[in-house]
Amino acid sequence: MIKPSLGIHLPWFVKEVVVNDKEQRVDIYIDHEREIQVRCPECDRFYAMYDHGPERVYRHLDTCQMSTFIHVRPPRVNCPTHGVKQIDSEFGENGSDMTYAFESYVIRLAQECSIEAVKRLCGLSWERGWNALERAVTRGRSRKVHRIPSRIGVDEKSIAKGHRYESLVYDLDGGTVEYVCDDRGQESLESYYRQFSEEERAGVKAVAMDMWDPYIAATKAHIPGAEKKIVFESC
Ligand SMILES: [Zn+2]
Question: Do 174 and 226 fall within a single domain?
Fold first, then answer.
């Protein structure tokens, strides 16, 4: 029997696992205990569950190399103040069709290879890969204090077979994506640096990048002492 590793804990449990050998696909149905309290996402107060929203299907990490999907019916709360609300899902972001685990897998891959390769390996359209990156960055930002990492990695990704590029900024120590910009020009990296004061930018100790003139120019323009801080990665 396939035991999916979902990190599922009460009140959630796996109700049913359907393995389709022919389609090389696993569908996992998640349910919850009957009597649960649901938190209103607006005011954080708990109330008895009201009903369920429509079923959500999330792409999850493969099980034995089979595409795996998680089915959940998200509980809703009827808050006396805020009305009927769907709770924030712990499986995947509202509006996303991937679990958090699958999304971070896509992001780790994107740090190692082109978006084209991510798309091929994950069976995604590149728009979806791109959305996952953008969401991860947005989520990271909402959690993150305003801080420029002391060791930064800058990377260009080729999209749509080299017709388009994006710039990614990483925190080399935290391993997180800090910023995604839809171009690889000087302006795209400058837009990242400009979020920080000169004093904050002075705290940057190293910027690792490919030998790409626009990134070099942007870094020299915004990072004090950049000449000694830029580290070129071997391609
Ligand atoms: Zn409320």
Answer: yes
- If you measure from the C-alpha of residue 193 to the centroid of ligand 1, how many angstroms do you get, rounded to a whole number? 38
Task: Calculate how far, in angstroms, residue 40's C-alpha sits from the geometric centre of ligand 1.
Answer: 5
Mean residue pLDDT of the chain comes to 84
Q: Measured in angstroms, how far is the CA atom of residue 53 from the centroid of ligand 1?
A: 17
Classify residue 69: in a domain, yes or no: yes
> Edge to edge, what strands does the sheet with 25-32 contain?
12-20, 25-32, 66-72, 56-63
* Residues above pLDDT 70, as percent of the chain: 91
Does 220 map to a domain?
Answer: yes
Closest CA to 191 of 170, 169, 162, 160: 169
Percentage with pLDDT > 90 across the chain: 37
Task: Please give the model's pTM, rounded to 2 decimal places.
Answer: 0.61
Domain boundary among 41, 76, 97: 97
Domain extent, residue 211, equals 102-232
